[in-house]
Amino acid sequence: MTTGSDEPKNRYLQYLEIVTGPLEEKKRYRQYKARIKRLPENYRIAVEALERYLMHFGPVDGSGAMEMYEDLADLFERSAADATPIRDIFGDDPIEFVETFMSNYPLGQYRARERHRFTSAVDRAIGATPPQDRTE
After folding, report:
1. Between the CA atoms of 21, 33, 102 and 83, what dihedral angle is there, to the nearest 10 degrees?
2. Which of 20, 73, 82, 108 could form a disulfide with 35 if both were Cys (CB 3.0 to 4.6 A apart)?
């Protein structure tokens, strides 16, 4: 891993990342939060509500989650710039919107593994042979 140049990270940064996780992900998250803070209030409220939902039900992995949050920020920045009404962004069913939005991103490794474990157990319980490539 490098620090942005061709020099390797020093031991302190390597140790710090072992304890706290990748520093680059934390930097990306802070940048995302700064983008959201600059949105008009009604758009910011909507994004923060979506973010709370995604924290509970969205991808768990740092990089997968950050890609999703950055895309969310892009969507709301463009919508605010175009003065798109919030209802037009979400449609009639906000849950359907967020579930469709999340389906474009891979599940975190933990959730994918647990889904596979769950569906395999159900298949065994009903006497079926579990499919080989089940990812959801």
Report:
1. -170
2. 73
Whether the Cβ atoms of residue 125 and residue 76 lie closer than 8 Å to each other: no
Identify the bridge partners of residue 56 per DSSP, sorted by sequence position: none
For the record, the structure tokens of 39 come out as 């949105």
Q: What is the pLDDT of residue 1?
A: 45
* Separation of CA 8 from chain center: 28
The arithmetic mean of pLDDT across residues 97-102, rounded, is 88
Architecture of domain 24-105: Orthogonal Bundle (1.10)
In the structure encoding, which two tokens stand for residue 25, read together? 């992900």
Burial 6-35 (b: 16+ CB within 10 A, else e): eeeeeeeeeeebeeeeeeebeebeeebeeb
pLDDT digits (tens, 9 = 90+) for 66-91: 888 999 999 999 999 999 999 999 99
* pLDDT given at position 128: 66
Mean pLDDT of 119-123: 85
